[in-house]
Amino acid sequence: MKRLNPTLLVAALCLMLFGAAGSVRASQESSNVLPDEVLAALRNPDKVTLYSIEMAPGTGKNSLYGFRILGHVELNAARSSVAIQAFESAVANWNGVMAECFNARHAMRVEANHHTYDLLLCYECHQLEAYRDGRMVCEIGATGSPKVLNGLLTSAGIPLAKPE
To answer: Is the N or C terminus of the chain more exposed, i.e. has fewer CB atoms within 10 Å?
Structure first.
């Protein structure tokens, strides 16, 4: 009887486990969209503010959903469009991978239709959380590069969170 190679056995087990998880994510991909109400706010915002945040305790006005605010900038119409596109692109291009953590470094507040929508984005963990008036409305996958959002923040003199 031929003995199985332990390395191949471990590789096969990993493939089975992660392959199964990947298929679960793939089946959820079709529902990986922002709610219609959030999309409507993004299409016609009254005010857009971009935040640099980090996973550290903050208090009062220095805190956003448990993240410390390093700084923020209110965006004009052109920069708002760029930031909104970056968030939408992160969701649209999600690759089906999502980590257990959530270490957001970017947030965007959109005021529209007498409501406040907050979107927190973690490129590291491939996740986005969306809130309406302080209540979570969805947690979905997101991926991409923080370069565009980092550029908007640094051009306004806002410090960035240190990478993990």
So the answer is: N
Task: Copy the structure tokens of residue 92.
Answer: 């649209």
Where does the chain have alpha helices with state H? 6-28, 36-43, 77-92, 147-155
Interval 31-44 mean pLDDT? 96
Report DSSP letters for 96-125, one per residue: S---S-----EEEEEEETTEEEEEEEETTT
| Cα–Cα distance for residue pair 24/41, rounded to 1 Å | 30
For residue 42, what is the DSSP state? H
143 contacts 161 by C-beta, under 8 angstroms: no
Above pLDDT 90, what percent of the chain? 75
Residue 162 forms part of a structural domain: no
The C-alpha atoms of residue 45 and residue 41 are separated, in whole angstroms, by 5
What residue numbers bound the domain in which 26 lies? Answer: 1-31
Pick the residue with more confidence: 4 or 74?
A: 74
Q: Are residues 27 and 39 in the same domain?
A: no
Q: Are residues 19 and 70 in the same domain?
A: no
Q: What is the dihedral of CA 155, 63, 60, 58, to 10 degrees?
A: -110
